[in-house]
Amino acid sequence: MNSTAEPDPTTQYITNGILGILMFSLNALSLASILQSRTFPPRQKVLFSSLLLTDTLLGFQILSVRLLPIKYNSQHFLCKARLYTGIIFNYATIFSNLLITTERILSISLPMNLNRQITWKKMLIVIAFIWAIAIILTFSFFTVGFEGPVCQFVVVGNIIGYIVAGFSNCIVFIIIVVMYIYIAKVTRRHIRQIAATMVGNNPVINKRTTYQNKADLRTTVTVGIIVGVCGVSYCPMGVYLIYSGLFVSDVSAFVATNQTIFTITLTFYMMNSLINPVVYIFRLKKCRQEMVDRILCRPRSDFINEIS
């Protein structure tokens, strides 16, 4: 039995090339659109930008490291850079999704105090703290680097570190789902309460209230889609890491004999970074408009509104 888990290099090269180009271009374009938007709320701009930045860096990592025409083993610098950054991005992404969901809970529970007490600068500090935790978790379990026959995720490195990453993905996702259920219930209750107190003979107030209800509902649905995509992408890999770490004695042989399962799981894992910018484009009107203006090389819509 072949104890290594090295997949077909041509297939892997083509797959990494397509995913890398799409990830980097879509996320970079979405990130630039959100950062340059003048109408996007600053706190939400920081939150979504942090997630898009992680996905952009992952796309850049695929293009700059995985597509190099160099064959290297697990002790090579490029292998260590690839695996270390991949695990760091895993933690950063899952924790960023948790932060986005937490911000949504606070925005509907403390709408009057949130903007005053939690500014975009404080949110930057929280995001920096998340990245620090991601780096600490990664290097604390992979202090000795990656020992093994080939440079491949799961096959080389401390198996305990992969188990912790798997449990982190699943547990954080469960927490996010519970939080989102609460968000959906509170949003629905708020919409009903506001609708019940609408002024019958004041069309201006009624129109503003209806618009705010739709905006809250749309944001809640967008967060729900992001949560669902995160679960579909990260939970299979989390279960795979937990199972291979706890119930498999020879992980290298297990991955080699079940290469299709590993490839599908890894593809779902990476698809999260590809789907996120698409969700922003189609769900966030401000982000979509910014991107259209950028692609067509025309003045930004918010600038036109300001001078008209």
Structural class: mainly alpha
- Under the CATH scheme, which class? Mainly Alpha
Total of DSSP H or I helical runs spanning 4+ residues: 11
| Radius of gyration over all CA atoms, rounded | 22 Å
The chain-level mean pLDDT equals 77
Distance between the termini: 72 Å
Spans of at least 5 consecutive residues whose pLDDT stays below 50 are 1-5, 302-308
Protein name: G-protein coupled receptors family 1 profile domain-containing protein
Subcellular location: Cell membrane
Domain G-protein coupled receptors family 1 profile: 26-280
Keywords: Cell membrane, Membrane, Transmembrane, Transmembrane helix
Mind explaining what this structure looks like?
It is a multi-pass membrane protein. It comes from Patella caerulea (Rayed Mediterranean limpet). The chain crosses the membrane at residues 13-34, 46-63, 83-102, 123-144, 159-183, 217-241, 261-282. The protein has eleven helices and no strands. With 308 residues, it is mainly α. The chain has one domain: Rhopdopsin 7-helix transmembrane proteins (Up-down Bundle). The radius of gyration is 22 Å and the shape is globular.
List the helices and strands and how they pair.
Layout (H helix, E strand, L loop, with lengths): L8 H28 L5 H25 L10 H33 L1 H7 L2 H22 L17 H38 L6 H45 L3 H7 L1 H25 L1 H11 L5 H7 L1
